[in-house]
Write a structure and sequence with these properties.
alpha/beta; Immunoglobulin-like; nine-stranded parallel β-sheet; six-stranded mixed β-sheet; 26% helix; Glyco_hydro_31_N_dom; Glyco_hydro_31_TIM; Glyco_hydro_31_C
Length: 636
């Protein structure tokens, strides 16, 4: 059962697809207060209660003990000190003494104090008074039934093409045809399967959306066709900002048709991103979404069938006005002897240019013919960019034909695309962070998801990449991605690349099972990844487990996440079969309920299968298009 409470006049987000009659917030069953225009309510928790949800968020599967913010943030340092990442997924569920879910449909900032200030209390602060709150309950009191109830209200999750479950290689950047061909050759020579190679910002002409630098990629359409004949899909990036340039038709059309975000005085808001000064399309307007979505045709007409949307929080390196102020301040201090206070004040001025709250507050959108400050809709900006593309693709190609995933997101965007978890680091702790995000993202409808395997920032080591890949074998998006200036972390670049072949080959053997599990989860509003607490609610060790998650109805996954170890301890909440997969080998061993140390070599992928269950494996191939999904063997 879902009950909707309405306060004020909410801005429409289209997160919920079912119609619910809104009950006046005055009848909200929880005590609340309004202070300085903010709606604040709270509820008590027992010591044994677990709080799930919030989708792509820092810290654990159990969200207790920290303060989180719903605020899409361009911040690559995903440490425990952070309160928000790139997404705003406003679904929370209490499980224990009571079991219920809360979804707050509000596109601005929300603060979730989940037992931080007071361990036995959750306090939620909505930064406004115009919103809808949905309370989700179910007679079974089972967490999975709460999730299914909620997911049925927000609509079916996006299903990507079958080939999007293949292994994918990305880097900032493969800037030209020779670099891309080199990647493909490297994988082919090492006999490591591969389906996709990514084109980061350098494929564009001067970083302009929907352009291709013909010097770097001559005869682009022919090149895309040639790669497809080799079984390789090229996946270009699209950014939110449109370069300000005379003669660039996308920008000029945006100006002519009044499609860009404005300042309060009606001027186009100008910010700096990769190409320099850009305009930001006002994705709050359907007309703008239709216009921007149709621009993807320039690339799909060339044969492109996959995209990743980026920088759409929106990320702003600086605004023209903010930069001018900072430069004037620096100029005014020229020749001065800068003491401690003056130096750090100047330093903070320049550090504060990027994604400045002052800049966000100066942006205005047109909604229903009225100007609305960006602060009120920040969290749905990136979601509406991706919606623009997703709706256009569905209209032109039908469902499931185009790969699409995004960095920024809000609940509702799960119907148009997947997500990746942003610019992580080559840190061992980020293997676990990836694992913990998977069930939380699934709760919010985002099934096609995954992290940058091996880590995006910093230099990855051979063992880290292998262990990261062994988790990525199970994530729907299996993409290795790294940053400019870091070591090359393509699988073939490491010593003894046959170990990488063994791990990636396991992925291809599992694709029929993973794809079937994915489709079933989408169609049934189910989860691919679940906390152990969902399946074993009366088992305290399972309820507190944060390093293992359930996969489908058959499996439990348990990645090795520490350096210089031969394996790890696992907890089995019931008798299971331990499976070690490596290349075409599958070693099985029945194990009883309890704690076990399992040895896992760097070229092995650990997996547990529940008693009485089996999963299919197919013969491996170099491309998903070459997989025989009918000739299967079963293990369990």
């Amino acid at each position: 059962m879902i009950t909707k409470y309405t306060s004020g006049t909410p801005i429409r987000t289209d997160a919920v697809v079912k119609d619910f009659a809104g009950i006046d917030i005055n009848k909200f069953p929880v005590d609340y207060k309004i202070i300085d225009g903010k709606f604040i309510f709270s509820f008590d928790m027992q010591d044994s209660d677990i709080v799930f949800g919030l989708g792509e968020a820092p810290r654990g599967i159990n969200k207790r003990g920290w303060i989180y913010e719903s605020f899409c943030s361009d911040d690559p340092f995903h440490t425990e000190t952070k309160s928000s990442l790139y997404a705003a997924h406003n679904f929370l569920m209490l499980n224990g003494s009571k079991t219920f879910g809360i979804f707050i449909d509000f596109p601005a900032k929300i603060r979730w104090d989940i037992g931080y200030t007071k361990p036995s209390r959750t306090e939620i602060t909505v930064d406004g008074t115009d919103f809808d709150i949905y309370i989700i309950e179910n007679e079974s009191n089972k967490p999975i039934d709460i999730v299914k109830e909620f997911r049925s209200a927000i609509g079916q999750s996006y299903i990507p093409p079958f080939w999007a479950f293949g292994y994918q290689q990305s880097r900032w950047s493969y800037p030209d045809k020779a670099a891309v061909d080199g990647v493909i050759k490297g994988y082919n020579d090492a006999k490591i399967p591969l389906d996709c190679v990514y084109l980061d910002i350098d494929y564009m002409k001067d970083y302009k959306d929907f352009t291709v630098d013909e010097d770097k990629f001559p005869n682009f359409a022919e090149y895309v066709k040639e790669k497809k004949e080799q079984g390789i899909h090229l996946i270009p990036i699209i950014d939110a900002g449109v370069k300000k340039e005379a003669g660039y038709d996308v920008y000029e059309e945006g100006v002519e048709n009044d499609y860009f975000c404005k300042t309060e005085d009606g001027e186009i808001f100008e910010g700096g991103v990769w190409p320099g000064i850009v305009g930001f399309p006002d994705f709050m307007q359907k007309e703008v979404r239709d216009w921007f979505g149709a621009k993807y045709d320039r690339l799909t007409d060339a044969g492109i069938d996959g995209f990743w949307n980026d920088m759409n929080e929106p990320a702003i390196f600086y605004s023209t006005k903010g930069l001018e102020k900072a430069l004037n301040k620096a100029k005014s201090l020229e020749g001065e002897n800068l003491d401690l206070s003056k130096f750090f004040n100047l330093k903070d001025t320049f550090l504060g240019l990027s994604n400045s709250p002052e800049d966000y507050s100066s942006i205005y959108h047109m909604i229903d013919g009225k100007p609305v400050c960006h602060d009120r809709v920040h969290n749905i900006y990136g979601a509406n960019m991706t919606r623009a593309a997703g709706e256009h693709f569905a209209k032109k190609f039908g469902d499931g034909k185009i790969l699409m995933f995004s960095r920024a997101s809000y609940i509702g965007a799960h119907r148009s695309s997947g997500i990746w978890f942003g610019d992580n680091h080559s840190w061992w702790s980020h293997i676990l962070l990836n694992l913990k995000m998977l069930p939380s993202a699934n709760m919010c409808g985002f099934l096609y998801c995954g992290a940058d395997l091996g880590g995006f920032n910093e230099n990855a080591t051979r063992d880290l990449v292998l262990r990261f890949l062994a988790l990525g074998v199970f994530t729907p998006l299996m993409r290795n991605h790294s940053a400019l200036g870091t070591v090359n972390q393509e699988c073939y670049n490491f010593e003894n690349s046959e170990d990488f072949r063994d791990v990636v080959t396991v992925r291809y053997r599992l694709i029929p099972y993973l794809y079937y599990t994915f489709k079933k989860a989408s169609e049934n509003n189910d989860m691919i990844f679940r906390p152990l607490a969902f399946d074993y609610p009366d088992d305290k060790m399972a309820r507190e487990c944060e390093t293992q998650v359930m996969l489908g109805n058959e499996c439990m996954i348990c990645p090795v996440y520490e350096q210089n170890v031969s394996g790890r301890y696992v907890y089995l909440p019931e008798d299971m079969t331990f499976v070690k997969l490596s290349g075409e080998n599958a070693e099985t061993k029945p194990m009883e309920k309890g704690v076990h140390f399992i040895e896992v070599a760097l070229n092995e992928v650990p997996l547990f299968i529940k008693k009485g269950k089996q999963i299919p494996l197919c013969k491996p191939a170099m491309r998903t298009s070459e997989l025989n999904t009918e000739d299967l063997t079963y293990i369990g």
